[in-house]
Amino acid sequence: MKMITEDIRLLEGMKEDDNSSFKAVYEKYSKVLFIYAHNIIKDKVICEDIIQEVFISLWAKRKTSNISSLKPYLFQAVKFQIFNHFRNNKFSTEDLTRLNIIDVSMNVSDQIEYSELNQIIRDQVAKLPKRCRHIFVLSRYDHKSNKEIAEELEISVQAVKNQISKALAFLRNNLQLEEAVIISLILLH
């Protein structure tokens, strides 16, 4: 709860053009966001650009955005930038191999389509069994580690991994091919 309160204070400071609040947000989240992006895109320069874009956008929208939870917002923004990176065909053969994508065209043109796809994913996630869905949401949307989830729910880390695997298999089986490819990009952790 302390973290959420601190984030709210920092967001309010940014709305009042407080550069030190922005710097504090950057220092708090930039490294973890970079690591997250780098786990998907193994190119340091591209990941640095993605993180820079996310923070430029955060500052540019500081007075108009209604961010209720900063950490999930920032992770979602990074996911969107990664999505744009792949959509714009700036991926290497290594990226394709690592993601097990062979000759699949992602013809998604704008954020509206991304939002629609995200809604499709959320609809499918809602169909998961209650416990599986809860664990999946904690992992992929709240960005909690398997260990954090296991401690919170008082279960083993292996049980968390099993539920996440079960959820991903369900989503892959219930989405069209292009959606399944894109979900693997969006939900990689």
Automatic annotation (TrEMBL):
Belongs to the sigma-70 factor family. ECF subfamily. Residues 26-90 form the RNA polymerase sigma-70 region domain. InterPro entries: RNA_pol_sigma-70-like, RNA_pol_sigma-70_dom, RNA_pol_sigma70_bacteroid, RNA_pol_sigma70_r2, RNA_pol_sigma70_r4_t2, RNA_pol_sigma_r2, RNA_pol_sigma_r3/r4-like, WH-like_DNA-bd_sf. This is RNA polymerase sigma-70 factor. Residues 119-171 form the RNA polymerase sigma factor 70 region 4 type domain. It comes from Zobellia barbeyronii. NCBIfam families: Sig70_bacteroi1, sigma70-ECF. SUPFAM superfamilies: Sigma2 domain of RNA polymerase sigma factors, Sigma3 and sigma4 domains of RNA polymerase sigma factors. Keywords: Sigma factor, Transcription, Transcription regulation.
